[in-house]
Amino acid sequence: PPTLVVRNETEDRYFEAFREVVIPEISGIWDYSFWESIVLTACDEPFIRDAVLAIAAINLSIKAARKKPRTLEGGTGSSEISTKHYQFALERFSQAIRTMRTTLTNDEQHLRKALIGCLLVFCFEGFQGYPKQA
């Protein structure tokens, strides 16, 4: 399976969540191998990596929000965990959009990465319940 050079432990957790949780959930749309061989191998591009991390975080935020409110290990409530994932998702998604604009404006050779980026924007907005805005 593709690996990603991540900058820290948090990114590593979200990348693994994308591989282990998100891909199986969305692979009904496109084959699992599409996500593994096309999307994950393109994560060397910073805007694609940030979009993948954002999608994983939004997915985990949604899952945490659906749990019954209770205190988890270390005194952290499920809504607090959901909020942390959501904040990370928004930060990374914003970064992905900014970097995608700059990258694609400056280099016309990135058609494949542009299409992957558009797909990931659609996925992120879809997870939030806004597919028409994508």
Fill in the keyword field for this structure.
134 residues; single chain; mainly alpha; 70% helix; globular
Order of helices and strands: HHHHH
Rg, Å, rounded? 15 Å
- Helix fraction by DSSP (H/I, runs of at least 4): over 70%
End-to-end Cα distance, whole Å, is 29 Å
Strand segment count? 0
- The total count of helices amounts to 5
Largest sheet: none
Mean pLDDT: 84
Structural class: mainly alpha
What spatial form do the alpha-carbon principal axes imply?
globular
Low-confidence stretches: none
Oligomer: single chain
Q: Could you tell me the strand content as a percent range?
A: under 5%
Summarize the structure.
This protein is mainly α and 134 residues long. The chain contains five helices and no strands.
SSE inventory with pairings:
Layout: H1 9-26, H2 32-39, H3 46-66, H4 78-106, H5 111-128
Helix pairs in contact: 1-3, 3-4, 3-5, 4-5
Structure report:
By secondary structure, this protein is mainly α. It contains 5 helices and no strands. It has helices spanning 9-26, 32-39, 46-66, 78-106, 111-128. Helix 3 runs antiparallel to helix 4. It starts with 8 loop residues before the first helix and ends in a 6-residue tail after the last helix.
